[in-house]
């Protein structure tokens, strides 16, 4: 395994080694690593073509007969090797005249100890000669034109294991040995090596033929006589030999396949596959294998060619295994590296994308480019003063340090500045008919509101442009103020943006913070423009009546600057610090009461009040709008449900009596949710075990179910399995309260039946869906008793009826007084005082002998004591109540009144005529008394609101007195 890893490492460095000679690599060529050893063998110092196939040609192309010596066969080539070596070191050493040399003449040679590996014939090997004497002798022998030496592998030091690399100084030790001692440490069989070059202590050898030491000649340097060895004779056509050699070749190929290092060489080899000789093939195989030095020595010593081939094959097979492991290791490492590389690449891409998007905080150029690009489309329409600011800020951005806080401030500022829709307007649609259609589509009734919107559109059409206006929709909750705002935007094809200012007390919310603050933001209006991307949206400002008092500045004044058409053409947001033109924005405000809207604001608004809906209107809204939208939201089909008129009416009158329809919407949603559950349950129960009907009798379910199962299929045959029983079906429809299921055809197959479940909501089961009606104390008395009169009040929630009750506490001679309760406000308390005084005066006038008020202590109470009440409009009701008690006459049945009264008995106008009228209708009042000044308000009411009401308009209290008590001859006993 260690070998495989080392091999992988070296292979990856191969290209470096072959293109430029690396001194470190040179040093390590005698290492134990096989590839390096082989590398060493092909290395030719100072020769640019170090990977020349020359060596292989010599090796495999020889046509020499068995046992022939490649050097002897090719003396010319040997000369060339020598010449190349000489050329190489000609600069450093004296030129050597090449001569033809016969190795067989070489019988006495210097013995070179090889520490790491034997030298194979035909292979190069650089070695380092540390013994100066030996080196000098080698140089000398070259000069004597006998550049040969014997290369012998050093034997293992006794008691050591060559496989363990311990960093021992074996090399040093071997050069310390001399003569016989050294000879004993050398293997007998070695290689006749030609010295091709000597550079310093580096000697490059090329192996020629096998030799054996016969005698010691000289001790220092070690010189020996040698015998030239020849391979044993072999049969070149022997099948076994052939087969073995082919196996060596194919193994070699396999090994080389996995090793790119040797791929070129194997090509050279295969080109000459027919010309090899067996001994050389065996040597080649062993030489390139990763075998250790002793295994290699075994191959060197083997003179039987077949045995040598077998040995070589063994070593190659081992090498193949190592190659496979090497490949696996390489692959694993490659995968790891490629994974890391992938991550690196992705990171780089991410950086590039961030840069492109300008998200890279430190990339100023990208940021500037982003801002400029954003501005490009708006440049022509953008006001020059804004362009100038943007340019200045862009220049500033370039100068700032990316990590500084000011850089971030500038960047955010530019982000806002460039994101606003400078001069971009959506095309307005002034088509009145289309607008009318849209308004009608979305809302029932609200005729005056719609009319006003259409007027606005018409003016816009004639002028060609619509001036920014402030419309204020006021009315109780749930009357559709917000939703009509949305419809107006749709009708005008303007973008819609809504924000609520209820409870808003910080001016910065409207006008933005100064840029210098940390986390500074522009105001709501700038946020709106960025959001809608047009400069003429419809902005709905909700709950303007609930604008906060303000702890930092006055929000009302800020709103004024925002809304006032005179000022908002140059609205200045603190954050943006450049004037914005808001004159094209259409502002629609909503409020529950107009009284609390700051008067400068109110003054600039066009108030459109939505009073609330009467039962009839609610019926329409519920049927045509709320039911429809809720049904769709619940995924229920129209044919699956039926809510009867009576049920709807009951829902409106007994559950949702308030002015708006939000509660009605909630109740309808509640009903539909329950219906959805019933339908789903029923399907789940009906579907798998289908109720059987085999006997052909019509099944009548008259239990509590409200479900109507309608046959829509007339399949034939009988239902599978079992007989139908009416009570079984009843059980399956346990949620229902009445039902009728009629299976008309005999023998109906269950699979062919498609039943449509229909849930019926009527008066009988309404409580199952919405519970018991909420108790409403609106009509406490059927016939009002003496001292009790019904008044009409107006609240933010709409109009309502209220009773004024007066009772006698005690008779106290000359100590007539009035005590009031019912959480009355100051105005109402004063009203009661006025009423007491005036009632006394009227009684005195009508019945001078009656000292009732002078001698009686009275208590006046307004029920719903928990609800605070105020306002002057109950004045006339209070007088009537007091006079009723004083005269002991109940007022006329089904009468309600409202009106402020002065001390002289004059009746002053009141507000909320529509709301009060609607409330009176809800309270089943037949006769209403209003101040004369309110006649116009009443006349303007829709016919359906006024329908069936007897209304009297009065200027003076006497008129009320006559109306209230005229019909009642009957006095209380
Ligand atoms: N005339 C109408 N026709 C159809 N739907 C209506 C009508 N009036 C109100 N609605 C519906 O009643 C619901 C409540 O309306 P919306 O939220 O607009 O009330 P609001 O007046 O803005 O209430 P608040 O003052 O509480 O904000 C909406 O779903 C709206 O569509």
UniProtKB/TrEMBL annotation:
ATP binds at residues 475-482. Its EC number is 3.4.21.53. PROSITE patterns: LON_N, LON_PROTEOLYTIC, LON_SER. It is an enzyme of class 3 (hydrolase). Residues 109-320 form the Lon N-terminal domain. Residues 711-737 are annotated as: Disordered. GO terms for cellular component: mitochondrial matrix. Residues 783-967 form the Lon proteolytic domain. The active site is at residues 873, 916. One of its GO terms (molecular function) is serine-type endopeptidase activity. GO terms for biological process: cellular response to oxidative stress; chaperone-mediated protein complex assembly; oxidation-dependent protein catabolic process; protein quality control for misfolded or incompletely synthesized proteins. InterPro entries: AAA+_ATPase, ATPase_AAA_core, Lon_bac/euk-typ, Lon_lid, Lon_proteolytic, Lon_Prtase, Lon_prtase_N, Lon_prtase_N_sf. Pfam families: AAA, Lon_C, Lon_lid, LON_substr_bdg. It is found in: Mitochondrion matrix. Residues 306-335 form a coiled coil. Homohexamer or homoheptamer. Organized in a ring with a central cavity. ATP-dependent serine protease that mediates the selective degradation of misfolded, unassembled or oxidatively damaged polypeptides as well as certain short-lived regulatory proteins in the mitochondrial matrix. May also have a chaperone function in the assembly of inner membrane protein complexes. Participates in the regulation of mitochondrial gene expression and in the maintenance of the integrity of the mitochondrial genome. Binds to mitochondrial DNA in a site-specific manner. Belongs to the peptidase S16 family. This is Lon protease homolog, mitochondrial. It comes from Cinchona calisaya. The lineage of its organism: Eukaryota, Viridiplantae, Streptophyta, Embryophyta, Tracheophyta.
């Amino acid at each position: 395994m260690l070998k495989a890893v080392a091999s992988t490492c070296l292979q990856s460095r191969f290209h470096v080694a072959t293109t430029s000679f690396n001194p470190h690599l040179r040093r390590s060529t005698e290492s134990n690593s096989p590839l390096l050893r082989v590398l060493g063998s092909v290395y030719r110092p100072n020769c640019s073509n170090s990977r020349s196939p020359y060596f292989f040609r010599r090796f495999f192309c020889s046509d020499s007969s068995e046992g022939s010596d490649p050097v002897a066969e090719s003396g010319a080539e040997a000369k060339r090797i020598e010449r190349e070596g000489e050329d190489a070191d000609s600069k450093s050493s004296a030129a050597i005249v090449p001569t033809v040399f016969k190795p067989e003449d070489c019988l006495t040679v210097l013995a070179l100890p090889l520490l790491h590996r034997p030298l194979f014939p035909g292979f190069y090997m650089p070695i380092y000669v540390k013994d100066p004497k030996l080196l000098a002798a080698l140089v000398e022998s070259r000069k004597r034109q006998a550049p040969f030496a014997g290369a012998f592998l050093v034997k293992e030091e006794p008691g050591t294991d060559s496989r363990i690399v311990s960093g021992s100084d074996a090399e040093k030790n071997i050069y310390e040995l001399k003569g016989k001692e050294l000879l004993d440490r050398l293997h007998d069989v070695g290689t006749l090596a030609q010295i091709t070059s000597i550079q310093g202590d580096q000697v490059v050898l090329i192996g020629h033929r096998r030799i054996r030491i016969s005698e010691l000649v000289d001790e220092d340097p070690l010189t020996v006589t040698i015998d030239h060895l020849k391979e044993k004779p072999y049969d070149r056509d022997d099948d076994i030999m052939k087969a073995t050699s082919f196996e060596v070749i194919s193994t070699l190929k396999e090994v080389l396949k996995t090793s790119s290092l040797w791929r070129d060489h194997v090509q050279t080899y295969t080109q000459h596959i027919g010309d090899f000789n067996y001994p050389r093939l065996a040597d080649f195989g062993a030489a390139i294998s990763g075998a250790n030095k002793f295994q290699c020595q075994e191959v060197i010593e083997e003179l039987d060619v077949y045995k040598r081939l077998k040995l070589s094959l063994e070593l190659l097979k081992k090498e193949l295994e190592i190659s496979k492991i090497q490949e696996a290791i390489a692959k694993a490492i490659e995968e790891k590296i490629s994974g890391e590389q992938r991550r690196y690449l992705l990171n780089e891409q991410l950086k590039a994308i961030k840069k492109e998007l300008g998200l890279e905080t430190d990339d100023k150029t990208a940021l500037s480019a982003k801002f400029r690009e954003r501005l490009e489309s708006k440049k022509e329409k953008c006001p020059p003063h804004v362009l100038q600011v943007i340019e200045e800020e862009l220049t500033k951005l370039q100068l700032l340090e990316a990590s500084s806080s000011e850089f971030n401030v500038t960047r955010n500022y530019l982000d806002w500045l460039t994101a606003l829709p400078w001069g971009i307007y959506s095309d307005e649609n002034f088509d009145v008919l289309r607008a009318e259609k849209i308004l009608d589509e979305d809302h029932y009734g609200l005729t005056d509101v719609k009319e006003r919107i259409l007027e606005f559109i018409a003016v816009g059409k004639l002028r060609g442009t619509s001036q920014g206006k402030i419309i204020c929709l006021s009315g109780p909750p749930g009357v559709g103020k917000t939703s009509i705002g949305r419809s107006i935007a749709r009708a005008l094809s303007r973008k819609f943006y809504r924000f609520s200012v209820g409870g808003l007390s910080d001016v910065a919310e409207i006008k933005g913070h100064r840029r210098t603050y940390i986390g500074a933001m522009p105001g709501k209006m700038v946020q709106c423009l960025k959001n809608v991307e047009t400069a003429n949206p419809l902005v709905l400002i909700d709950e303007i009546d609930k604008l906060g008092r303000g702890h930092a500045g006055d929000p009302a004044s800020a709103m004024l600057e925002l809304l006032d058409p005179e000022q908002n053409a140059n609205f200045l947001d603190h954050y943006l610090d450049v004037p914005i033109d808001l004159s094209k924005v259409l502002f629609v405000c909503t409020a529950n009461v107009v009284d609390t809207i700051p008067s400068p604001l109110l003054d600039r608004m066009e108030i459109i009040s939505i009073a609330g809906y009467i039962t009839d209107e609610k019926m329409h809204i519920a049927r045509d709008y709320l039911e429809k939208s809720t049904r769709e939201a619940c995924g229920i089909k129209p044919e699956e449900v039926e809510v009867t008129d009576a049920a709807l009416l009951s829902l409106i009158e007994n559950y949702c009596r308030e002015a708006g329809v939000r509660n009605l919407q909630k109740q309808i949603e509640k009903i539909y949710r329950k219906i959805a559950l019933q339908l789903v349950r029923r399907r789940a129960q009906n579907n798998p075990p289908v109720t059987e009907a085999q006997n052909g009798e019509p099944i009548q379910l008259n239990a509590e179910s409200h479900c109507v199962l309608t046959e829509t299929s007339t399949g034939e045959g009988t239902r599978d399995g079992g007989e139908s029983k009416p009570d079984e079906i009843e059980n399956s429809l346990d949620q229902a309260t009445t039902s009728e299921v009629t299976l008309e055809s005999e023998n109906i197959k269950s699979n062919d039946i498609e039943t449509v479940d229909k849930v019926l909501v009527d008066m009988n089961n309404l409580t199952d869906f919405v519970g018991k009606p909420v108790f409403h104390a609106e009509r406490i008395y059927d016939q009002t008793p003496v001292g009790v009169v019904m008044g009409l009040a107006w609240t933010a929630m709409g109009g309502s009826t209220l009773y004024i009750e007066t009772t006698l506490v005690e008779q106290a001679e000359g100590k007539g007084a009035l005590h009031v309760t019912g959480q009355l406000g100051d105005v109402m308390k004063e009203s009661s005082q006025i009423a007491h005084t005036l009632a006394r005066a009227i009684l005195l006038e009508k019945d001078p002998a009656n000292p009732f008020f002078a001698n009686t202590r009275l208590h006046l109470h307004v029920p719903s004591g928990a609800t605070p009440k105020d306002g002057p409009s109950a004045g006339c009701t209070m007088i009537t109540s007091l006079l009723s008690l004083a005269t002991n006459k109940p007022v006329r049945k089904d009468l309600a009144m409202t009106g402020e009264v002065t001390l002289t008995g004059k009746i002053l106008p009141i507000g909320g005529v529509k709301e009060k009228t609607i409330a009176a209708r809800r309270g089943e009042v037949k006769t209403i008394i209003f101040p004369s000044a309110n006649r116009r308000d009443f006349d303007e009411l829709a016919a359906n609101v006024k329908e069936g009401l007897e209304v009297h308009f009065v200027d003076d209290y006497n008129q009320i007195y006559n109306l209230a008590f005229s019909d009642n001859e009957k006095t209380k006993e």
